[in-house]
From TrEMBL:
The lineage of its organism: Eukaryota, Metazoa, Chordata, Craniata, Vertebrata. Its cofactor is L-ascorbate. This is OGFD3 protein. InterPro entries: OGFOD3, Oxoglu/Fe-dep_dioxygenase_dom, Pro_4_hyd_alph, Pro_4_hyd_alph_FE2OG_OXY. It comes from Melospiza melodia (Song sparrow). The keyword Metal-binding applies.
Length: 252
């Protein structure tokens, strides 16, 4: 894998760590939004936005939702916005599949916490990149992921390939990950890797840690395969384009 540098160790408690990198040209092929489309690009890590206790509460939401399904392969997802839930080799719509029973699974407090956490991450991204928080729109897909060492059964399970979010999802301008479990304690492998020309820069997950970055090719990345245990995270992404905006989920 070439030279690997650790950008954030699990044992670190980081107030704010930010590394600026030159922007790629990916944004040029999309409509630009003044005061939002990245002109300053890079990646940040903070342990000061979400507490470990909040991360544990969010993880319990993920565990409850994912307990209703789960992929046959090693990667399961739950999207509270669209209702997409891994089930075997496919996806089902959680809200249609379980109907009114959904209110026994998620409470209004769960959604309020989710919303609050999302807003704080959004504000931190806006602050670091020098843009207005109101210029950012939550976009899809925004989802929980649960990864373990089970072998992949479909291409959806193969999360370890290098990719660029802006290329994969045109709507993404800023991506964030909130980690809900601890590297080397809850799982082995599963580190997040930025793949730069000269070296790899890794982020070791810890509960409550937020990793965020501009979504273009300047931040080509992958996740190492999980070797043992279970890794929980939530991906929360933002667009500068209001047409790609989605609302927060809630109990209907």
């Amino acid at each position: 894998d070439g030279v690997t540098e650790v950008l954030a160790h699990r044992s670190d408690t980081l107030q704010d760590k930010f590394v600026e990198v030159p922007c790629s040209e990916d944004y040029e092929s999309h409509k630009r939004f003044a005061g939002c489309t990245p002109r300053k690009c890079g990646r940040g890590v903070t342990d000061a936005v979400i507490t470990r206790e909040e991360a544990e509460r969010i993880r319990r939401i993920a565990e409850r939702g994912l307990s209703l399904g789960g992929s046959d392969g090693g990667a399961s997802i739950l999207d509270l916005h669209s209702g997409a839930l891994s089930l075997g080799k496919h996806f089902v719509n959680l809200y249609r599949y379980f109907g009114d029973k959904i209110q026994d699974i998620f409470t209004e407090e769960d959604f309020a916490l989710y919303r609050d956490v999302r807003q704080r991450i959004q504000q931190r991204i806006a602050q670091v990149f020098g843009i207005s928080s109101s210029a950012l729109y939550l976009t899809k897909p925004t989802f929980f992921s649960r990864m373990n060492s089970t072998g992949a059964k479909t291409t959806h399970d193969e999360y370890w390939h290098p990719h660029v979010d802006k290329v994969t999802y045109g709507s993404f301008d800023y991506t964030s990950l909130l980690y809900l479990s601890d590297y080397s304690k809850d799982f082995g492998g599963g580190r997040f890797v930025f793949m730069d020309a000269d070296s790899n820069k890794t982020v070791e997950p810890r509960a409550g840690r937020v990793s965020f970055f501009t979504s273009g090719s300047e931040n080509l990345h992958r996740v190492e395969r999980v070797q043992w245990g279970t890794r929980f995270a939530i991906t929360i992404s933002f667009s500068c384009d209001p047409q790609h905006g989605i609302g927060d989920p809630g109990v209907a």
